[in-house]
Amino acid sequence: MAELFTLPVLLGIAFSGIRLATPYLYAALGETFAQRSGVLNLGVDGIMLMGAFSAFFVALNTGSLWLGLAAAAVVGLLMGLLMALVSITFKAEQGISGIGLYMFGLGLSSLLFRTTVGTVKTISGFQPVKLPLLGDLPILGDIFFRHSLLVYGAFLAVPLAWFILERTTWGLKIRAVGQQPAAADSLGVNVTAVRYACTGLGGVLAGIAGASLSIALTNLFQENLTSGQGFIAVALVYFGGWRPLGVLGGALLFSFVNAFQLWMQVLVPEMEADIAVMLPYLLTIAALAVAVNRTRQPAALAKPFERGEA
Amino acid sequence: MTQPRPPVSQLSQSLRQRKRSAPPQWGDLAAALGLPALAVAAALLVGALVLLMLGANPLEAYAALIGGALGTSAGLIQSAVKATPLLLVALGIIIAFRANVINIGAEGQIIAGALAATWFALAFRAWPGPALVPATLLAGFAAGAAWGFVPGLLKARLGVNEILSTVMMNAIALQLMNLLLGGPMIDPAEVAAGTFIAQSERLPQHAWLPRLVPQTLLHAGAILAIVLAVGVYFFLWRTSAGYRLRAVGQSPEAARYAGIPVPAYQMLSLTLAGGFAGLAGVVEVLGVHHRLLEGITSGYGFSGIVAALFGKLHPLGAIPASFLFGSLLVGADKMQRAVQVPSALVGTLLGLVVLFVVGSDYVARRQAARRAAARAAEEGERG
């Protein structure tokens, strides 16, 4: 155990922790928008898988990572809108429609992967960019400022999401629609449009979250690449009290636990890897049990809005 | 004297209106049966578009799929084999859903049941078959129930969202199985041969479920599942506990005023749901594989949700629904071999079926409400 606590190892864990937070952050921030508007999108994992595949496929065939990222965003948008159509317009039970979207994304990404790519291949993904000056800081520079652009983007999205939700008219409308849709409606806010926009945005971010896995972190695609990270992202929204800063805290907690267990597998090979892999999931359940402040939950979460039924 | 008919679906309020009006409303019935069929047709259509884009011939693929599942008696029997765990999972999903609890944890509960069954059958292999098989079934049921009880307890006591906790329990069960199959439960023969395939020792033959048709995989679990479907129907509609469970699902508020302990019934529903999924794991071990191996769930935990929804959340409706989706799974394997379209197509189709079924439910509800309003207006004029 002693070698776990040397400086290089701790630096390595911290660096990986920051890096691995990326997909959680994109996906959970997107889900925060959807849930604040009152839509519970459980299909995030399916969208991530499709985003991861699209980004990988386009990058592999065109050689352009940015085109891959754009493809993931577009596919994510389309899947988000599909979820919106079923859940908002057709007022489906959202717990179930989300699972349908997950199965669809899991199945389709596997199908497309097997027919178009076939075997696991790696690509050269987004490379780390050392920020000028900051990257040269001792320790801090190594941990925070030598990542790829998608990692920086995820962390920049946190204050941006906070600003939109808490400091703009847009954010006010989103929160009103999630809290009191009937009141928002009577004031002329288009409940349906706001929810569509938020679910669509959630889809875009989930698609980018998948892309960050396939073309920035692992640089490959395989069936079920996300292995449930999208579900953890949904749980992080609860854990974070439906606020971007809380989501950031949760994402970091999880990614650090994940980074820790990955390093454990390397450094303590006699420990069973399966126990380590279990850690994040056990932590999620524990976090849901003790750390969720239910009073912050949007009052109309997962409740379809019907005019004149409030 | 006719018995009052059971509600066909909790999701669709059409049934509530239907129950009140004396003559059967054929429009409602047609809508109830027609919309799911339409949902499957729509899913197949989208699937066909995907196949076209991939350069495959959808007609050929679907012909191989349907022919493979339903064209031969072997295909039909295989469909029934796959329908068995689907039905057991669906029964659990239905019980939970009737209490307004969504159980996404069947995958993990199947694993828990399969693990317990394998361990029990190997540990007590000295027992004679007539004692060992029922005891193993019970052990698997108990393990699945325990796996459902945990999220049930968390929901009842701490208000933890059961959808998320059951998903996490799935991941934990999977890792637990990998852990045990990697070491403590691995087949000693695999270790001796140095191949280390992650599977358990083969169960002794007297622990197997008896075959219904010799030379096929159809086993007594199929009968067990059908008997249990009838049992669940009686539980939900003919016992006071079942009545209270449904009352909790229809309106937790009203149930609470009636003095029903709502959290306790939610917990009960998840525990039972876990038990049934656990049984699905047992019959896969005792009836099909005769050992525990990786991928034992075959995704039944998710496709069981589709069967439950498609059977309109009715235990008896789940029987044909399970057979339908069982045959879809069989057909997909055949299709993969015949026309090289990956069987992952089925996952895609199942997801679409779910989306279209839950989506079309709103249409059914609205149509039923409109018809009910029209009937009410008519009766008002007469009265």
Q: Which terms summarize this structure?
A:
heterodimer, A: 310 residues, ABC transporter involved in vitamin B12 uptake, BtuC, two-stranded antiparallel ribbon, 12 helices, B: 383 residues, mainly alpha, 15 helices
Task: Provide an overview of this structure.
The complex is a heterodimer of chains A (310) and B (383). Chain A is 71% helix and 1% strand. Chain A is built from 12 helices and 2 strands, in the order ααααβαβααααααα. Chain A has helices spanning 7-36, 44-62, 65-89, 94-117, 140-144, 149-167, 169-179, 181-186, 191-217, 229-239, 244-267, 273-290, and strands at 129-130, 146-147. In chain A, helix 1 runs antiparallel to helix 9 (191-217) and helix 2 packs parallel to helix 4 (94-117). The longest helix of chain A has 30 residues, at 7-36. The model of chain A has no long low-confidence stretch (mean pLDDT 90). With 383 residues, chain B is mainly alpha-helical. Chain B has one domain: Orthogonal Bundle (ABC transporter involved in vitamin B12 uptake, BtuC). Chain B has 15 helices and no strands. Chain B starts with 13 loop residues before the first helix and ends with a helix. The interface between A and B is large, with 50 and 50 residues.
Number of domains of chain A: 1
Shape of chain B: globular
> In percent, how helical is the residue content of chain B?
over 70%
Strand order of the largest sheet of chain A: 1-2
CATH architecture of chain A: Orthogonal Bundle
Question: What global shape of chain A is seen?
Answer: globular
- Return the CATH topology of chain A: ABC transporter involved in vitamin B12 uptake, BtuC
**End-to-end Cα distance of chain B:** 26 Å
Q: What would the average pLDDT of chain A be, to the nearest integer?
A: 90
- Work out the helicity level of chain A: over 70%
Strand content of chain B: under 5%
> Which residue ranges of chain B are poorly predicted, with pLDDT under 50 across at least 5 consecutive positions?
1-22
Q: Look at the structure and give the mean pLDDT of chain B.
A: 86
Elements of chain B, N to C (H/E): HHHHHHHHHHHHHHH
